[in-house]
Specification:
The structure holds two protein chains of two kinds.
Chain A lengths: L1 E7 L2 E7 L8 E5 L6 H8 L7 E6 L2 E3 L4 H6 L2 E4 L11 H5 L6 E2 L2 E2 L1 H15 L14 H14 L4 E5 L7 H16 L3 E5 L6 H4 L2 E6 L2 E7 L5 H9 L19 E10 L3 E9 L3 E6 L5 H9 L6 E6 L2 E3 L4 H6 L2 E4 L3 H5 L6 H6 L15 H14 L16 H13 L5 E5 L7 H16 L3 E5 L3 H7 L2 E6 L2 E7 L5 H9 L4
Parallel strand pairs in A: 3-10, 3-11, 6-9, 9-10, 15-20, 15-21, 18-19, 19-20
Antiparallel strand pairs in A: 1-2, 1-4, 4-5, 7-8, 11-12, 13-14, 13-16, 16-17, 21-22
Chain B lengths: L1 H31 L7 H26 L7 H18 L4 H29 L4 H20 L4 E2 L6 H5 L1 E2 L1 H6 L5 E2 H19 L1 H11 L1 H6 L4 H27 L1 E2 L8 H11 L11 H20 L4 H25 L1
Antiparallel strand pairs in B: 1-4, 2-3
The chains are: A alpha/beta, B mainly alpha.
């Protein structure tokens, strides 16, 4: 690939990226979230069109304008989310879209023969007849690989293939990948788990902010160097000054041994008034699940939550809100907003009881008044309180979600990816708002996949890994490299 | 309420377009029928005819706004009618007390059936299509068992006025005007009450929010299970009211009442009235216009002496066209 560029509205996702892959080579592609790895690979697989740049396969220029074109060139992509039909069997999934037929009826015997051949070549065994939804995640992963190989792929891209696998399954996957390499296939391996790379990669390419920072043979690229190359930049200067936490400030939120199996295992944490605690970690580390268990979005399987020293029993979001917890969810469209409702209706939704008058009717005048006040305070850019939330920009929508929770008197605020997908200006405003809440004595936990954000906005940083706290850093100790290493599971 | 105007602005466009089409239609039919259509007595008849459909459709509107469906309402009309007729015949009461307690028994049965409809939807996450389909069979079966398959004739004459009388009949007589049927009064009271419930109360806001985004509603601390349960209970109560009105009209509770096109007619009125089957959007006023359009069309075709088989075809086409037009309007207007 040479000189690949791709821009999305508001961001240059890839600028002038070039890379090569030899037959029989495993190239690891690493970088932070949003560095451009997935975008680059989607371009290779024909899922996205590049703005500029060329792709060469076997030295010849290749025009990849659709997934089918990529398939014909022998490029196979294994996405992080499986593309399997869970109700169908492994055989049916394998031949999906290219089912063998005899006299225009499905030829099940031929399909089965093909499946057995592919599985035989790969040296994997699994039930051919069970619906694949009942297979383990590891087996589904292997089936995805078999699917790609059955289409005669020679260039195989794997996006985070080990994210959901157990150690045994990972070992089997690696064995398979090594066999594919030995057979002369080129493999691009995308991973966040740096500790895996020595076991599998020949070369490592680091991508940052849409550019290739460095490519080196694995043997001469230490984990510390990889992390340094990934994090690279200095912390952005646009974070506000955090007000210091008073040393004897009361403990507002105290979590003891909180579990929600299988994602969260006995988490213990205290957050003082005015303190912001940042959760860093990889996708799937269990950060969101910890917040959900505290807020009552999921029912915890064990542990205790105390607010202002009093033990509270939280079994549902209703309990969580009553206890003074506001949970600002990660996915505002799916979990935070009713898109077909107005700004006013969304803002008041969680606290409607405040607006009911003696006749049990909603007092719309007071609703409008309260919404207007919040629109002013948060500078929400909407033409009126009656605008449908669907029509607002991402950053404005996020502010509507915040307004919804600020209407209450929550003392504990849980922010999950509060600035994902919004522009720099809106980000700065949300940071300022968090600082304001801390000043008022709220206890705040923030989950973010942007390391600079966690480091710039937290009094303490927790590296979460496998549903437990890998390490807790004070603001001074929390350097990008140290947090990244702890989150990725390396011995620090 | 300046703030309301903007939001209303969205649905007023739709209502505006519908009103223009409707007025043109009425004028056209009236000319074709030599003025018979717009005679006051005919208008009163149309309103009486649509009252049953509209009251059923009110409950269905609530259910459909939560992205659910209630297929059992026709059978519940039958069951509640039979139960009320049996209750009325076994009660040693007369006059208003008899009417009130009879109605209460029907409402209890309808509400309970709605609760049973909701239970598997809320607790087991079963699709309402299935649970209410099952209730459709169960309720009708019970209705036939209780009545032994025959209409239960009312022994008291206390219900005659509700069935065939006029509201303030003396006044309309004195003024030589056609009277207003009691069914129309029931329809208007139910329409206003449930419209206020949907648009102005916390419960109504929650119904709309759950239909728009159930997970966001849950995380906002809304009791989703309770709200959904109440929605099916309302649907059952509306079916009971319609069962009561039919019983009063026919002076008997017949198991066959409500087993025709009642359920489909109610769903048609809801959908023509602009309520989204995907949930999250809908008004009682819209449903009223849906019922009015369908009822006027039926009446007009009768006046114009159109073959009744052809009437079915036209009605089906109108339902399809109304919803398709609404979809196109959303896309391009």
């Amino acid at each position: 690939m040479r000189g690949i560029r791709k821009a999305f509205p508001g961001v240059q996702a890839l600028s002038d990226v070039s890379l090569t892959l030899a037959a029989g080579e495993i190239l690891a592609l690493v970088g932070e979230n949003g560095a451009g790895k997935s975008t680059l690979m989607k371009i290779l697989a024909g899922g996205l069109a590049a703005d500029a740049g060329d792709v060469f396969v076997d030295g010849a220029p290749a025009k990849i304008d659709s997934p089918r074109a990529a398939e014909r060139l022998g490029i196979g992509m294994i996405y992080q989310e499986f593309n399997l039909v869970p109700q169908l069997s492994a055989v049916d999934n394998l031949v999906l879209g290219s089912e063998p037929t005899r006299r225009s009826l499905l030829d099940e015997r031929e399909a089965r023969r093909r499946a057995e051949k592919v599985f035989g070549e790969l040296g994997i065994t699994m039930s051919l007849d069970l619906p694949v939804g009942r297979l383990s995640v590891g087996q589904q992963q292997l089936l995805e690989i078999a699917k790609v190989l059955s289409k005669h792929a020679r260039i195989i891209v794997m996006d985070e293939p080990t994210a959901a696998l157990t150690e045994n399954e990972i070992e089997r996957l690696f064995a398979l990948v090594r066999r594919l390499k030995a057979a002369g296939n080129g493999i691009v391996y995308i991973s966040h788990r740096l500790e895996e790379l020595p076991r599998i990669a020949d070369r490592i390419t680091v991508l940052r902010d849409g550019r290739i920072v460095e490519t080196r043979p694995q043997a001469s690229f230490s984990q510390d160097d990889v992390v340094a190359a990934m994090v690279g930049r200095k912390l952005d200067a646009h974070f506000p000054q955090l007000p210091p936490v008073v040393p004897d400030a009361p403990i507002v939120l105290s979590v003891c041994g909180l579990s929600r199996l299988p994602a969260v295992h006995g988490v213990t944490l205290e957050v003082r008034a005015g303190e912001i605690v940042g959760f860093a970690g990889l996708i799937g580390a269990g950060r969101t699940e910890i917040l959900r268990a505290i807020a009552g979005a999921d029912v915890p399987s064990g542990g205790e939550v105390r607010i202002d020293g009093r033990s509270v029993r939280i079994r549902s979001p209703i309990d969580g809100i009553a206890a003074g917890i506001a949970f600002i969810t990660e996915d505002r469209k799916a979990q935070g907003l009713v898109l077909g409702m107005t700004v006013r209706e969304n803002v008041t939704l969680a606290h409607l009881a405040q607006f009911v008058n003696r006749e049990l009717l909603i007092d719309r005048g007071r609703e409008v008044e309260a919404t207007k006040k919040l629109i002013g305070e948060l500078s929400i850019r909407t033409p009126s309180t009656e605008q449908l939330v669907r029509n607002l920009s991402g950053g404005t929508q996020q502010k509507v979600v915040l307004a919804k929770w600020l209407l209450g008197t929550a003392r504990v605020l849980l922010f999950d990816e509060p600035t994902r997908g919004i522009d720099v200006g809106a980000k700065a405003e949300i940071y300022a708002l968090m600082v304001g809440l801390a000043r008022q004595g709220c206890a705040i936990i923030m989950v973010s996949s942007e390391l600079p954000e966690v480091l710039g906005m937290s009094h303490r940083v927790v590296a979460v890994r496998h549903g437990v706290f890998a390490r807790v850093f004070s603001q001074a100790e929390a350097t990008p490299d140290a947090v990244m290493l702890a989150a990725a599971g390396a011995a620090a | 309420m300046t703030s309301g105007a903007k939001r209303g602005g969205v649905s007023w466009t739709r209502l505006g377009v519908a009103a223009v089409v409707f007025v043109l239609f009425i004028i056209g039919v009236n000319v074709a029928a030599n003025g018979a259509f717009l005679q006051l007595s005919n208008v009163a008849t149309v309103l009486q005819q649509i009252s049953y459909n509209f009251i059923l459709a009110i409950g269905e509107t609530f259910v459909i706004i939560t992205a659910g469906i209630d297929l059992s309402i026709g059978s519940l009309v039958s069951l509640c009618g039979v139960v009320m007729a049996l209750a009325a015949n076994s009660l040693h009461l007369s006059g208003f007390a008899l009417i009130a307690i009879t109605l209460a028994s029907g409402l209890a049965v309808g509400g309970l059936a709605g609760y049973v409809n909701a239970l598997p939807v809320v607790k087991l996450n079963l699709p309402p299509f299935i649970t209410t389909l099952a209730m459709m069979q169960i309720a009708l079966g019970i209705s036939y068992m209780l009545s032994r398959g025959r209409p239960v004739a009312l022994q008291s004459s206390a219900f005659e006025n509700t069935g065939t009388g006029f509201f303030l009949g003396g006044v309309s007589n004195a003024l030589h005007l056609p009277g207003i049927h009691y069914q129309v009064v029931w329809m208007l009271v139910a329409g206003v009450f449930f419209s206020v419930l949907l648009m102005r109360t916390r419960f109504g806001r929650y119904v709309l929010a759950i239909g728009g985004n159930e997970e966001a509603s849950r995380l906002a601390g809304i009791n989703v299970g309770l709200t959904k349960t109440l929605v099916y209970v309302i649907s059952g109560l509306c079916a009971a009211i319609v069962g009561f009105l039919y019983m009063a009209l026919f002076s008997s509770g017949s198991p066959q009442t409500g087993t025709g096109n009642e359920m489909l007619g109610a769903i048609a009125a809801v959908v023509v009235g602009g309520t989204s089957l995907m949930g999250g959007r809908g008004t009682i006023l819209g449903t009223f216009f849906g019922a009015l359009l369908i009822g006027s069309l039926n009446n007009a075709m009768n006046l114009l002496d159109i073959n009744s088989y052809l009437q079915m075809v036209v009605l089906g086409g109108v339902i399809l066209a109304a919803v398709a037009l609404d979809e196109l309007r959303k896309r391009y207007l």
